[in-house]
Each structure stands twice: as structure tokens, then as C-alpha cells.
Design brief:
Organism: Paraburkholderia ribeironis
Oligomer: single chain
Number of domains: 1
Protein name: Capsule biosynthesis protein
Pfam families: DUF6356
Shape: flat
Radius of gyration: 17 Å
Strand content: under 5%
InterPro entries: DUF6356 (IPR045936)
Order of helices and strands: HHH
Helix content: over 70%
Keywords: Membrane, Transmembrane, Transmembrane helix
Distance between the termini: 34 Å
Number of strands: 0
Number of helices: 3
Largest sheet: none
Length: 76
């Protein structure tokens, strides 16, 4: 059981988060990506729909991730 707990905590600890904090952060990226993927599937069938949805979501998430990294590195 101890080994299993270490597996669940290793990566979140490596980014200075608890398991629950990391779960929330992962969901906050995964859910928009999932919704965007559905929009992109619709876009594949109907190219006039959701023309910029995928790129807008990717850009927003990338900006958020890069900004968060820079903020973490800047804090003592």
C-alpha cells in the first residue's frame, strides 16, 4: 500500500502540489481539451463550424501553463 501511495504522490510532489491540487489542475486542463476535441470532431465533419475553437483552446491553455511556470520560478 505504501508503494501505491508513493506512486500517486510522486509527480504531484515534484511540482509542489498535493494529490488533490494536482487532480484539480489536471482536470482544469483536461476538461477544456476534451470539449475542444469534441468541437474539432464536429469541425472535421462540418468545416464551417468551430473554425478557431481548437487553436483558441490550445493557445489559452499554453499561455496559462507557461505563465504559471514563470510565476512559480519567480517566487522564492
Amino acid at each position: 500500500m505504501n508503494h501505491l501511495l508513493r506512486l500517486f504522490r510522486a509527480h504531484p510532489n515534484s511540482v509542489d502540489e498535493t494529490y488533490l491540487q494536482h487532480m484539480g489542475a489536471a482536470f482544469s486542463f483536461g476538461l477544456p481539451m476534451f470539449i475542444a476535441s469534441l468541437a474539432l470532431i464536429v469541425h472535421a465533419l462540418f468545416p464551417f463550424l468551430f473554425v478557431k475553437t481548437g487553436s483558441n483552446v490550445v493557445t489559452a491553455l499554453h499561455e496559462r501553463m507557461v505563465t504559471a511556470r514563470k510565476r512559480q520560478r519567480a517566487s522564492p
